Amino acid sequence: MSVFVRSFLFTVGIVTVMTANALAQPATGRTDVYGVLFMKAAPGQAEALGKALMVPPPNAPMADHFVLLRHQEGDDWDYCLIRHLGPKTAIEAAPGPANPARDLSAWHDDTFVRGPSWADFSRAMGIGGTGGTQVYIVSVQRAVPGHRDQLEKSLSGPPASSKVQTGDLVLEHIEGGAWQYLTITRYNSWQDLATDRVQAAGAASAPGGWADVRQHTAFHRGTIADPVGSK
To answer: Does the model's pTM come out above 0.90?
Structure first.
């Protein structure tokens, strides 16, 4: 069974192949497929769910290629697990081993996305860096009809504000959730996040700023998260 399905175990009965070239030509640098899982814990199971999600699927070819983020403020999910799957992945009908996270969750939402190589992803996300001092803003976006290119340009441009050093990723939907882009901004500290928010408020109308993005966005959800673990 595929890495994605073995880890999430919520999709059976479908046979398909997702590649970085599926559906549309990927933007420059989006060479690899990632699985994105948002999951809400069942009541009283948040800590146990986090521990279960840290365990890679059996025999996963890239078991150490993941990051697990924990909700602090924003959307209703408790964890966001992003797992690197390589340049392609397959979904098979054959059942896999039982997933301990399944009975610890209230709901989940999973999506395949295009993104950069693992080396570029892990560098932007600070994997192997300063650990628990880092903080992330995780957002999903869906464009106003006819504005998808404009939204991607706004999301992918340099930050409108800031002198604060960040790591930034824009991942593009292939199949799954009802959004088109997942953006992640990494800050080296909570202080950097606060400084950036103050600066961003003064640059709302600049390219890539709040007003620029909003004129192309039909739907968005953003969440502040901190890292539980990564490899």
So the answer is: no
**Angle 43-50-126 from CA coordinates, rounded to 5°:** 140
pLDDT tens, residue by residue, 31-48: 999 999 999 999 999 999
Give the C-alpha distances (Å, rounded to integers) separating 147 from 13, 27, 70, 202, 215. 35, 16, 31, 25, 9
pLDDT in tens, 184-197: 999 999 999 999 88
